[in-house]
Structure formats: C-alpha cells, structure tokens
Design a protein that fits this description.
Helix content is 81%, strand content 0%.
C-alpha cells in the first residue's frame, strides 16, 4: 500500500473470524473454570457429609466408620451421571484436575511422616513393608500377565494392592504413562475392596484373639487406603491405630522406590522398540513423577521441624498441613468420580477384578503372617 492509499475496510468475514476467535479464547478458560467450581462444590458436599452423617445416624457404626474417600467418589460419580445426561461433562472436564490435586495431596502427606519416628520405633514396620510390597506386587504382576492384562494396567493394579491404594496407583500411572480410564478403574477397585475391610479386619482380629499391636500391623499392611486404615485401626483400638498408622506410612514412604523401579522397567524393557537406541538417564528423569521429590522433602522438613519445636506447636502446624492434604485428596477423589467412564469397566472385563481379588487374598494372608512374626511382643511406646 502506497502512502496515498487508504487502508482497506475490514470485511464481514474478518469481523466474524475475530469474534469466533475471541469466543473460542473465552470458552478455553470459562469451561475449565466452571469445571473446577463443580469439583469444589462436590468437595464441600463431601465435607458436609463427613461431618453430618455420623450425627444424623447416631449410634450407627457404619456411619461413623465411612471416611471421606467414599463420599467424595460417590458424589463424583453422581455428578458424572448428571453432567453426562445434560451433555456438559466433556466441556467441564478441563477442570477435573485429578493429577494436580492428588500430587499436591501426596506432597502434603509427606509432612505427616516423621522419618525419625519410623527409623527409631518402627523397624519391624520397615521390614514388613519391604517384604509385603515386594511379594504382593510381584504376585499381582505375574497373575496379571497370566491373564493377559495390559502392562500399564498390571502396573497400576500391582502398585495399588501392594502399597497404598489410589495414591500408589496414581504415582504408578505417572511412571508408566497409563490412560486415565485405567487409573479410574484401578481407583474404583481399591475403594470397592477397602470399604468392607474397614469392618471385616477388626472383627477377624478380635475373633483370632490378636494383640492390638499385631492387629494394627495386619490392618496397616493390608488395607489399601490410608483413610480406611485409620478407620479400621480406630475400630480396633488406640494401640492398634498407632501401629497401623506407622505400618501404613512406612509403605507410603516406599512409593518413591516402586515408582523409580517402574519408570526404569517401562523405559528400558516394556516400551523399548527392537533396534531402538537404549534410553538414557534423561528419559528416566523425564518420566519420573517429580512430586515424589516433594513428598520426600516434605517428610524431611517435617522431621526437622518437629525436632526444633514443642510438641503442641508441632502438632498444630502439622495439623494445618494435614487439613490441606485432606482437602486436596477430596478434590482428587471427586475428580476421579467425575472422570470415570462406565465404558472402561466393560472394556476391562472380569480379568482385572479377578487379579485384584486374588492379590487381596494373598495380601491378607501374608500380612497376617508377617504381623504375627514381627509384632508379637511389640508394644507401643507411651
């Protein structure tokens, strides 16, 4: 265009294109934001149910024992059904940030694990955790292979049943780059098996005449979710709860070891193509879930902090971190329910259920044997 020429006026098509682009940009953040608000609303509903249900059904052991993961996933599934029926689910799905919520929650979980306490007072828990996780993980991996499960689903199920349920499954999902449907399916199995365990294991421990410490070690080594362990331990008594917590947090602390092993195995063996260049340390670092480092750092920091302040002050600060952790885990469980697709159940079929059920039986029996062997005569320091 020369200096004497006027600029051409914008055409209708240009205006329409600009308007469409602006609308697209607006929708790009509006729908995910609305999705986050849905997750927050359901999380608030979870907190309300957790607080009020025991009051509404006073005297009911079931109402007292149900923990927030059950309410969170149930409300998430209910919201999933409503949003799917109204056609809004896919539009809002950008706000269902399961991975972010759970990773933040796991980092905060590290703050509740005092490494000094574990090392000095829970030697049997460390040994139990190593033996139990190794044996159950390898059995689940082997059986999943025999039944022809996808390697990534095998990894998720093996981690979930051998370590700490949903948290371990999500950590494993990051290491092996599993699909969200596989993660949702694994999480559903964890909750389905953990809920009855809250009541069954304390009842069996009482029927078998187990000491509180042995009962706690059995509960902590077997039940997959930390919340369910807490509920079952509380039903078994104060000393049982203390030991169950130590055993469970010891297993939680081993998440990082399993994740490193899975990352290396999938990078070097499972997904390495014939003739392809052997992946180096950079590939391991790329796939390694960085939040595990935050988990360990939070644990180390909490251990140091608790050694420098009084007991009351330390409990208050760690209590704030635990409250934040609970909120983030609730958001994660709600998101899991919102992301779950019934189609994934049909796609997976009966084989994952069989694998998980068989591994649970092995876990129950082996955990009982180790608890009796390692914790008979063990007493909780007062």
């Amino acid at each position: 265009m020369t200096s004497g020429e006027a600029a051409a006026p914008a055409t209708t098509s240009d205006t329409t294109s600009d308007t469409a682009s602006a609308t697209t940009r607006t929708a790009a953040w509006q729908w995910p934001t609305l999705g986050v608000l849905v997750v927050l609303a359901l999380a608030a509903g979870t907190r309300a149910l957790e607080k009020n249900v025991p009051e509404w059904f006073a005297g009911s052991d079931l109402a007292k024992a149900i923990e927030y993961p059950v309410y969170a996933i149930a409300l998430g599934l209910l919201g999933n059904a409503v949003l799917t029926a109204t056609g809004l689910r896919d539009r809002l799905s950008g706000g269902f940030r399961t991975e972010f919520f759970i990773k933040t929650g796991l980092v905060l979980l590290g703050a509740s694990i005092n490494l000094k306490v574990i090392v000095t007072a829970a030697g049997p828990a460390v040994l139990q955790g190593i033996v139990l996780i190794s044996a159950v993980f390898l059995f689940t991996w082997w059986l999943g292979g025999r039944l022809g499960l996808d390697d990534k689903l095998r990894a998720l199920l093996s981690a979930a049943v051998s370590i700490c349920g949903v948290s371990a499954a999500i950590a494993a999902a990051g290491a092996v780059q599993a699909r969200r449907e596989q993660l949702a399916y694994s999480a559903s199995l964890v909750i389905a098996f953990a809920l009855p365990s809250i009541f069954v294991l304390p009842a069996l421990a009482s029927a078998f005449g187990l000491s509180p410490e042995v009962a706690g070690a059995w509960i902590g080594g077997n039940i997959d979710t930390t919340a369910a362990v807490t509920a079952a331990g509380a039903l078994a008594g104060e000393n049982a709860l203390a030991v169950a917590t130590i055993v469970k947090v010891t297993q939680n602390a081993l998440i990082g070891v399993v994740v490193v092993a899975l990352t290396a195995w999938f990078a070097f063996r499972i997904e390495r193509r014939p003739g392809a260049e052997r992946p180096g340390a950079g590939e391991l670092w790329r796939r390694f879930p960085k939040f595990v480092l935050g988990f360990v750092a939070a644990s180390v920091l909490a251990t140091w902090y608790l050694s420098t302040v009084g007991s009351a002050e330390g409990k208050a600060v760690i209590g704030v971190a635990n409250d934040l952790r609970t909120w983030f885990l609730i958001l994660a469980f709600v998101s899991i329910g919102l992301e779950f697709r019934v189609a994934s159940l049909k796609e997976a079929g009966w084989r994952p259920v069989t694998v998980f059920a068989a591994a649970t039986v092995v876990n129950v029996l082996l955990a009982l044997g180790l608890a009796v062997l390692l914790f008979s005569g063990f007493t909780v320091a007062t």
